[in-house]
Amino acid sequence: MTATNHALTGATIGLLVANPLIALPAALLSHFICDSLPHFGSSDPQLLQRRWFSQLLLIDAAVCMVLVGVLAFNHPFHWPLAAVCAFVATSPDLMWLKKYVRARRHRPAITERSLLLSFHSQIQWFQRPIGSLVEVAWFAGLGTILVTLL
Prior knowledge:
- With 150 residues, the protein is an all-alpha fold.
- It has one domain.
- The protein contains 7 helices and no strands.
């Protein structure tokens, strides 16, 4: 899933669950649940080197920041928890940063043996461009829910 959809999921959890001891682990778990759904992506390692992919990442990060700004501006009940949950729900994707940087520098990927990295890779069973349809539906659904919570 895109960072935007992970952040929307986390923010929604934060707004609906008042208890941080429940909301924060739920937001983290939501990342892996969302990644197990069909979503946008490609198995092509050259994808990371493409300019449009870098632009997509920047837009995605900007939308996440706008989401936190909207939460701060509207001050819904539990908005700070929602903002933190948005970050927590998105944060597991930071493990891919090293791979992205190496690809952008045209360096070969280093195969790491991490249980979390292996798990995270295996649950993403359907990453294809057509998965963007699921991403759009997820965005529309959670966006609608989030607007009603604001």
